[in-house]
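Entry 14. Ran structure prediction on the chain below.
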Amino acid sequence: MKERLQKVMANAGVASRRHSEVLIEQGRVSVNGNIVRTLGTKVDPETDVIHVDGMPIATKQDDITIALYKPPGVVSTMEDEMGRPSLAQYVEDRPERLYHVGRLDEDTEGLILLSNNGELTHRLTHPSYEIQKTYVARVDGQVTRGLGKVLEKGITLKDGPAKVDKFVLRESQPRNSIVELTLHEGRNRLVRRMMGEVGHPVLELVRIQFANIKAGRLKPGQYRIIGGSELSTLMHMVNL
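Output, structure tokens:
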């Protein structure tokens, strides 16, 4: 069913209906690759592809993407055959069938995305898009500043070379240190294996960011719905 373009934009959280009209008149909105300047243009939110300033907007009303803070001790599945705590129990109030975007190992806490948009889920986990994730780890021992250059240059693990995109030493103490690592690879337990390889086993690990989405003020077990420009940026990163 077709609706006025400005109404679809407003429903997607882009702007108010009036401001959406201004964006259209300024030539900043395209539908299926064509600039639209005519107010009252009707579009189908289920099939038409709409961009504002080159950024896609989520128009399908049934699509939803969620940022969940996974507590430690929870497995990254929607259902666990062994009866362990899973992601599903934290989104029981949602009517949609949600899929987890990648995984966090059972002992790691922090940000994980859930979505019912299969294409978005697939692209966010596909290695060709090199989506970055940022972790904060408390590790054993006193980390020196030189370790960052070592990890950014790369080390060799049993399953091949590995490196971080960015390394920040947050705190260094004789018994343990706090480090922040950003990387785009998705190999199993990669942060833990890398830090163990350089002599600083991980004691605690938290993912604080996935692509442009930040955990922010979410507490373990809490979630929030991603929308507006935040979702548009996420979609743009995987060419949707």
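The mean pLDDT is 92. Will compare against last week's run tomorrow.
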